[in-house]
Design brief:
about 0% strand, Seryl-tRNA synthetase, mainly alpha, SerRS_1_N_sf, 2 domains
Length: about 120
Amino acid sequence: RLCRGLGFRPRLLRRGLPLLFSRARSGRPAAAAAGRSRLYEHARGGWTARPRLNLEALSAQLGEAERELETRKGPLGPRDLREIVATWQRLVEVQEEIAVLEAEKEKVAEEVGNIV
């Protein structure tokens, strides 16, 4: 019983082979349980909404946001912010192009349906 608390199984202990993963109270391996936090599990379960950044407002006030970012600590700088906003703007353009193509596709499908 003492061996089980240490993460070993008696048979393996006799052979000198430690069990690689001891069982946590939840029944999962201890290594997996140690790597995940309750917050992670909470978010993974869908109980937490992802934060949303208002990039429209950010791109409208890009200069002010860049100045604010210069005073903050961290790996991102004003150049990174410009790249993020440019990528977001390209994403919006692509979404608009997709919407136009989807409408065109529906129109063509309707015409094909009328012909057949």
